[in-house]
Amino acid sequence: MRRLRLLLALVFLAGSAVIASAQGVVTGMPEFSPPVFVPGEAVTVIAMVDPGTLPWTVATIPTGFTEAGESGPQVLSVALENRKGSPLLVVRFIAWRAGPGYLPAITIGGLDMPRIRFDCQSTLTEGNFEAPEPMPQLDMPGLYTKLYVLAGLLLVAALAGIAAVTKVAPWFRAFKARRAYARARREFDELLDRLDKASAGPAAWAALCAGLRTFAGLRMDADLSAMTASEVLRLPAGTVPGDACGDLAGILAMGDEARFAGNRDLQPASGIRLARALADRIDSAPLAAGAPGRTGHDIV
Questions:
Q1: Helices 268-284 and 143-197: angle between axes, nearest 10 degrees
Q2: Are 194 and 108 contained in the same domain?
Q3: pLDDT tens readout for residues 5-37
Q4: At what angle do helices 202-220 and 245-260 cross, to 10 degrees?
Q5: Which residue has the higher pLDDT, 291 or 18?
Q6: Which 8-state DSSP code applies to residue 110?
Q7: 34 preceded by a cis bond (ω within 30 of 0)
Q8: How far apart are CA 263 and CA 295, in angstroms?
């Protein structure tokens, strides 16, 4: 019986030595770099290992680690280094979930390393899992003063624009009237110059009478295109500027006689001279109130 007990004790001691030879003990607190980390951040953990009397070797495992699932830590590399004659465990990993977790047990350099606990912080400030509160709007220094100044400048610019339009609009209308006044005389003079060079005949008289009706109608602000010579003669006195109703009707009557009565003695040249004189008389006469003055005749 005594020998049996001795044999069992020897077997127990041998088994303990085998178990101890296959394990290393982490001594002290593991150090994490960075000390505080969040999910998705690469972390390095360093831990001193006490191998006891067991032999060990420096080793590195760069790849081939078992997947820890969707939320478990991902081991990137494991190394067993020599630090002043003692083994030093260096593990690089990434935690994918906030909260406490464990690195898997690893065998390296002849030693079986136990699991190492870690705490992964939340990306929310100070671990606050509540929805972040909105911060108040930050205004630039002097923002409201600048806005008031800008609004005042826009208001002044708007008022200045309205005043400018009020002042410019009448001038612009008068300018257009003067240009139209000058253009009417210029076009009539050009017509007379063309007729001077054209051959005599009923067509010349027709063009002369049409141009004279247009010119006189613009000066009177009336439409004379459908009025006969006798109708023009019966217009009230002063209707045509310069009291030229009779002269205007006389030229129109000459044109009708040459065109419709076949009077060949009436040449367009005489009618052209009379029309020039009539245009000068009309333009030199005072115009109705509000109508453009003769100075518009010189505008190009």
A1: 150
A2: no
A3: 544 444 343 444 333 334 567 777 899 999 999
A4: 160
A5: 291
A6: T
A7: yes
A8: 40
Q: Which of 80, 97, 122 is the last residue of a domain?
A: 122
Do 285 and 209 lie in one domain? The reply is: yes
37 belongs to a structural domain: yes
Question: In this predicted structure, what is the pLDDT of residue 46?
Answer: 94
Q: Flag whether 225 is in a domain.
A: yes
| Mean per-residue pLDDT of the chain | 80
190 and 114 both lie in a single domain:
no
Which pLDDT belongs to residue 8? 43
Least confident of 12-16, 39-43, 100-104, 196-200: 12-16
Say how many domains are in the chain.
Answer: 2
Domain that residue 279 falls in: 173-298
Question: Where would I find the H helices in the chain?
Answer: 2-21, 143-197, 202-220, 229-233, 245-260, 268-284
Q: Are residues 96 and 202 in the same domain?
A: no
Q: Are 205 and 215 in contact (CB under 8 A)?
A: no
Across 119-144, average pLDDT: 73
Residue found under tokens 């008389």:
281
Rounded Cα distance between 84 and 56, Å, is 14
Q: Which of 26, 3, 158, 165 is nearest to 88 (CA)?
A: 26
More confident residue, 59 or 245: 59
Predicted local confidence at residue 263, as pLDDT = 81
Is the pTM value of this prediction over 0.85? no
Question: Running DSSP on this structure, what letter comes out for residue 297?
Answer: G
Q: Please, what sign has the CA dihedral across residues 31, 33, 35, 39? A: negative
Indicate whether 241 belongs to any domain. Answer: yes
Residues 187 and 283 in one domain: yes
Calculate helix-pair angle for 143-197, 202-220, nearest 10 degrees: 150
**Looking at the DSSP assignment, which residues form a beta bridge with residue 101?**
118
Give the residue from 122, 147, 164 where a domain finishes: 122
Encoded tokens for 297: 């005749």
